[in-house]
Design brief:
Elements: E1 4-13, E2 19-27, E3 32-36, H1 65-79, H2 87-98, H3 108-126, H4 130-137, E4 147-154, E5 167-171, H5 178-200, H6 219-232, E6 242-246, E7 253-254, E8 257-260, E9 263-265, H7 267-280, E10 283-287, H8 298-305, E11 310-313, H9 321-330, E12 335-338, H10 340-343, H11 346-358, E13 362-366, H12 376-383, E14 388-392, H13 397-413
Parallel strand pairs: 4-14, 6-10, 10-11, 11-12, 12-13, 13-14
Antiparallel strand pairs: 1-2, 2-3, 4-5, 5-6, 7-8, 8-9
Length: 423
């Protein structure tokens, strides 16, 4: 039974230059490990709550010194010199210590940094790869690697709102390895750079997750440009490379209407737009097609597109078992975007994963817009056998650290890629 002998925390900066946390956990056998946690921009209302300092004179109130102090203060006081039989035991202690439904007392950032650093230290103690340790947490034996979904174009909150929808992603459907997937995506990305320079005189400046973000005239044009980029790179849309779309529609939902480009649509109108897109373009996944509280119409969206594309819930579900159960019961989705920091501990994220798996949903494990160079997410996606991983684009080191880790795991294991998306 591992015993925690030392627990420290440090306020660090994420990929947007905003504060986040790193925690370091030491066990009684001298195993020591650190974990850094991300932070989102496009956040769901039901997400676990980060603790921020609120001091406007420092980082605009976004500092994490209070969260770091909670790790070294009340959390350390409760955990130090205590033995834990499992990750679940540790996480339940953290949940009890916080004692709020949204982690708002200690802060979800404090709780998750502790949860992850303990997991990594445990892997070091057991002398196993982190992905193996993650797999052991759910009594699973992985045999495949996740399919890559890579950000090509960005809008919404990731790119200053120059276009309402948030991301267009490319999925290298014909690739058989992580290495081949990255090479295909690099070719499409460079093709897109040239296309956007020609069409919009746009420099290849990137958004929060590394996606290209010119002033597209419309959301449909954004998708059309993605298809053209695939073709110009020498690939067949829908065969070699497919598309995924993240609408993040909560953020253009106002007073019961969706303000999409120059249109003001009710739920039925937006569903019809999405339905037409899935028939016109090689879109195999639609994320947050409706707003996070439009529960009545999510089943209608899934019914409209389910033969062509996944209905992927992010803000709708927030990796929250209660909301996932509601979505399963109402047949509102058939895929989960799993973000550990939305719920706050590995144990609760594992419960969300297992609920979705029991419903035969697809799983995409996702990074956030504010990431760090830490690569634990790659190990999690392998250990929990995600169907796909969503990290961002193939630029920016906080994104590449995850892809490079997947390359290492691929070389170690020689496991094949998951089939994707509807098989």
């Amino acid at each position: 039974m591992p015993t925690i002998t030392h627990l420290t925390a440090l306020e660090i900066l994420d990929s947007r230059g905003r504060p986040t946390l790193s925690a370091t956990c030491t066990l009684d056998d001298d195993a020591v490990a650190s974990a850094s946690i991300p932070s989102g921009a496009s956040t769901g209302r039901a997400e676990a709550r980060e603790l921020r300092d609120g001091d406007k004179s420092r980082y605009g109130g976004l500092g994490c010194l209070k969260a770091a102090a909670n790790i070294e203060g009340p959390i350390a006081s409760a955990l130090l010199n205590k033995s834990f039989n499992s990750q679940q035991d540790l996480d339940h202690e953290l949940i009890h210590l916080d004692n709020t439904p949204d982690k708002s007392h200690l802060g979800a950032n404090s709780v998750l940094a502790t949860s992850l650093s303990f997991a990594r230290a445990s892997a070091v103690s057991q002398k196993v790869p982190l992905y193996t340790h993650f797999a052991n947490l759910i009594n699973h034996k992985p045999q495949k690697l996740p399919r890559l979904t890579i950000n090509l174009f960005s809008g919404g909150l990731h790119a200053g709102g120059q276009i309402p929808i948030q991301d267009i992603l490319i999925i290298p459907a014909s690739a058989t390895t992580i290495a081949d997937s990255l090479a295909i995506c690099h070719a499409v990305y460079q093709s897109a750079v040239q296309l956007l320079q020609r069409k919009y005189q746009s420099r290849p400046l990137v958004a929060d997750e590394g996606g290209l973000a010119p002033n597209f005239p419309s959301s449909t044009t954004m998708i059309e440009d993605a298809v053209e980029s695939i073709e110009r790179a020498g690939f067949r849309p829908g065969q070699d490379v497919s598309l995924a779309i993240d609408l993040a529609s909560t953020h253009f939902h106002q007073s019961g209407r969706y303000q999409l480009d120059n249109l003001s649509l009710d739920s039925g109108g937006l569903i019809e737009v999405i339905r037409k897109w899935t028939r016109q373009f090689p879109i195999v996944s639609v994320e947050d097609g409706l707003s996070e509280d439009d529960w009545t119409n999510w089943p209608r969206l899934r019914q409209a597109i389910h033969t062509r594309a996944l209905t992927l819930g992010d803000d709708l579900l927030c990796t929250n078992p209660i909301r996932i159960k509601q979505a399963i019961k109402s047949v509102a989705a058939d895929a989960l975007l799993l973000k550990v920091n939305q719920i706050g501990t590995l144990t609760e994220a594992a419960e969300a994963l297992q609920l979705a798996r029991a419903a035969n949903w697809k799983i995409t494990i996702s990074a956030r817009s504010g990431e760090t160079e830490d690569n634990w997410l790659a190990d999690l996606s392998v250990g929990w056998s995600a169907d796909a991983i969503k990290v961002g684009s193939i630029t920016r080191s906080e994104r590449l650290s995850k892809y490079n880790r997947l390359l290492q795991i691929e070389r170690e294991t020689h496991w094949p890629l998951e089939k994707w998306p509807l098989s």
